[in-house]
Amino acid sequence: MKTGTVMDLASTNVITIPPTSTIMTSMKTMIRYSFRRLPIADAGTKRLEGIVTATDILNFLGGGEKNRLVKERYNGNLIAAVNEEIREIMERNVITVSTEDSWEDALELMIKKNVGGVPIINEDEIVKGIITERDLMIFLASRRSYDDFVSEYMTRGVITAEPDASIESVMKLMIKKKFRRLPIVKDGILLGVITSTSLVHYFSGEAFKKLITGDIRDVLDLPVSNLLQNEKILKYKELLVFHPSARISEIVRAMIEKNQAAALIVRKELEGIITERDLMKILYSKR
To answer: Does the keyword ATP-binding apply (predicted)?
Structure first.
């Protein structure tokens, strides 16, 4: 039986921006509040009109089909393109839940639709909250511990990139595979992790220092190792690394304490990865 509404677990101090805000404004808002997703609401009525995620921003910057806006309308000029309105790249078909829905409804919808968070709206389609995988993982972890070995649940055969790969190729790989993070490995040695949030942070400020002609290629062609050396933008400054024999409860605790969204599983080399999404699903299935 489902008990309790989603609002019991939701974040209610929701930041929204109007659809006329610039893409750069959305990027800076995400970084300022450490958000991976940002609801877009009408400035007057406050009704939900769309949502933009860090993945949408990467798609626009060069990882996917939304980059056509930069190429075709602005001839590759990134400085001009980031001043376009966010409505041009936002997702209009927003996956939402109602204030009356249960947290189980929200969790099951997020799994079904493969999204990391959903806005919560009332009968007037006004955003009243937002709930994420992390909120649900923390809640479920508070209800019970789970001591199976991480090796039983981690994702194996982790896709990685080398440090000399271009920033563009890394973004395209992340968009194609729908990854929020990508380990960087050289000769079997884990060097770091690039996340969608780190890339948004980079393009919201640091990237402009490297623009020579204003053309986005000045930045996209640089090796991703440049980002690994930039502590201002790295989300994972201290990687969460565990042995395959680590317990699920140990990893959940570390993710919460360190405010991390993933852990890398290493024996001598990288063997797997487990994310807060994985942990949410594991804990829900064992509740």
So the answer is: no
Q: Give the C-alpha separation, 197 to 201, whole Å.
A: 6
> 155 and 191 in one domain?
yes
79 and 16 in a common domain: yes
* Paired sense of beta strands 262-266 and 241-242, if any: parallel
CB-based contact 190:183 (threshold 8 Å):
yes
Reduce the DSSP state of residue 30 to 3 states and report it: helix
CA distance 134 to 35: 12
Query: What's the DSSP call for residue 200?
Result: H
Q: Which residues contact 287 (CB under 8 A, 6 or more apart)?
A: 140, 143, 144
Q: Which amino acid is at 175?
A: I
pTM for the full predicted model? 0.92
For residue 1, is it within any domain? no
Model confidence pLDDT, tens digit, residues 75-131: 988 888 999 999 999 999 999 999 999 999 999 999 999 999 999 999 999 999 999
Q: Determine contact, residues 200/221, Cβ cutoff 8 Å.
A: no
